[in-house]
Amino acid sequence: QFPFGRRLPCDIYWHGVSFHDNDIFSGQVNKFPGMTEMVRKITLSRAVRTMQDLFPLEYNFYPRSWILPEEFPLFVDEVRVMKDSDPSWKPTFIVKPDGGCQGDGIYLIKDPSDIRLTGNIQSRPAVVQEYICKPLLVDKLKFDIRLYVLLKSLEPLEIYIAKDGLSRFCTEPYQEPTLKNLHQVFMHLTNYSLNIHSGNFIHSDNANTGSKRTFSSILCRLSSRGADVKKLWSDIISLVIKTIIALTPELKVYYQSDIPAGKPGPTCFQILGFDILLMKNLKPMLLEVNANPSMRIEHEQELSPGVFENVPSPVDEEVKVAVIRDTLRLVDPQKKKRKDIHLSCHTNLLIFPAQFQSLCAPDQPAGYCHQEGALPFGCQTLDLVSEAKEEVLEAGQEQDGGRGPEPGLPSLCLKQVFPKYAKQFSHLRLVDRVAALFIRFLGVKGTTKLGPTGFRTFIRNCKLSNSNFSMAAVDILYIDITRRWNSMGMEHRESGMCLQAFVEAFFCLAQKKYKSLPLHEQVASLIEFCEDHLAALDEKRV
Ligand code: ADP
């Protein structure tokens, strides 16, 4: 632990909060620049919405959402239109403050007019979302799933998913929302941090009972009821890959700004926490992504009134230790050089700051250390899960180049899903290519916004201006879109056009040029048109 940093370079830096915890010029850091910003409720909703505009059916795993305050009128209008066209539709909505966590400030409403617009909605923007009224219940309780995902690299994209996760349970039996029960958080919100305060909370001392269980124990239950858990896993893997594909364009803009190409800098990886809700029909829905998922493997227990002690939590330990262990195995810088030497002997690991402490606490009771398979239930069901994943999705290359586990270590709990299944998702990566155009014209290194000159150069080099679309019209398009995005309460540190604004302008240009096609084909055609012109230009220059 080096709370104040250290000068000598390290292989791996484990930051507690963000990429910027320390100035790093080499090695690998466990955070990507911009990830915290990207997974905030509003930014995530926007990024997914862009993908929903292009591929509505592929991105129907995220509830319909509106951004407050700016989309409040749109929210009111759309709900009215939907109610008019289907009078039997009796929706419920969930309002979530942006940047909130642990259920903080969340409430349910039946009608847009119930939104608490009084007070500080302007200063505390939020996302309002369609509430999923029919979740899958186990023991009559609503629960959600926390899955751990390793984003090992952005370019090329490499994604791993942990074979097991956590299921976090509500503590009051679920009823569909009515005006009477809307306020009952223990019935509607699955947050551990809320339910722990319920008198009904049960600390789990094994993987398949209590208020926090392993996901594999749930899968086992579902499988014994005849549910198609293979399809469920395959849907979850798709959801994770598609969500990351929605996030990568903006992450790349942040990345090039913090770690400019050609300059010394670290590479990054990050463990993300995906919160997923299963609907009654077993369709997984994305609730949110956490850039800083809790890695605690202990929980507080009240020994006597007012006296608390941290005690080990076997369920957390079973899932989380494997995630961290395998992350370190996968990013081990010595891995390629010395395949068969035990990793922990020779990797320098630097941790900032104390948040990681509980995981590495040296004073665990002797013999308590996690061993895969030590918990009988986990061992059995993990096999089931991995089998399901392997069978459902077409076989690809083994993530470790086919080699077996390192001696003395259990097999990896992290399964590679990308590039393994890249082919099935490559058509979705359009905005990535738009971001590549954006980055090319950013000009000044270290910036994330495009100036008017950069935008004009983009139009000129890609030959997008003509008699129907003059350079004056280009300037007006730039000013209109940039001004609107900059007035939406986004960060104002830099002036200019952000990626999202550029994407909107690009979609506009695509619609203008290729009128009759569906949006994703218009955009794909314009990308090809631009890439061809730029390739020709590069050739000429050479
Ligand atoms: P936070 O970051 O504050 O935990 P979440 O988006 O995870 O915010 O929401 C908190 C909880 O509310 C979730 O764990 C889930 O139980 C419930 N929830 C959130 N969104 C929905 C939704 N659209 N439909 C049903 N339940 C939801």
TrEMBL record:
GO cellular component: ciliary basal body
Keyword Nucleus: no
Highest taxon above the source species: Eukaryota
Coiled coil start-end: none
Gene Ontology molecular-function annotations: ATP binding; tubulin binding; tubulin-glutamic acid ligase activity
Keywords for this protein: ATP-binding, Ligase, Nucleotide-binding
InterPro entries, A to Z: TTL/TTLL_fam (IPR004344)
Gene Ontology BP term (one): microtubule cytoskeleton organization
Name of this protein: TTL11 polyglutamylase
Organism expressing this protein natively: Oreotrochilus melanogaster
